[in-house]
Amino acid sequence: MADITPPVPEGRQLIQRYGNGGFFVAGVQHTGSVIVLPHRSAAWPVARYPDISAESLAEVFAAADAIEVLLIGCGPRMEMPDPGLRAALRQAGIVPEFMDTGAACRTFNVLLAEDRAVAAALIAVD
Question: What is the pLDDT of residue 2?
């Protein structure tokens, strides 16, 4: 059997699984939505796309110096970016990318393996 797990820098938050209403990140099970920062993950009290706001992303803004790209997993499908939220993130020096949660998880792992300064805000999916 071949191991296809991408090599990631020590201490980084590899997303190992998603679905069934949660995530498995760096060996830790998370129930519900999650924010994945370069060196830690935390519960995110957002269950649906319209609930995403600058306030809900306060942890991301607080870590802006360590983040170049924020992947926003919108749930089961990609949603249109909120112009105000996009502008606030760009003003903080963060490039937001909106996509469905599955694509955001896969893209996060690729960027992580490339040692990019990436974070993700992921809405849990079933």
Answer: 46
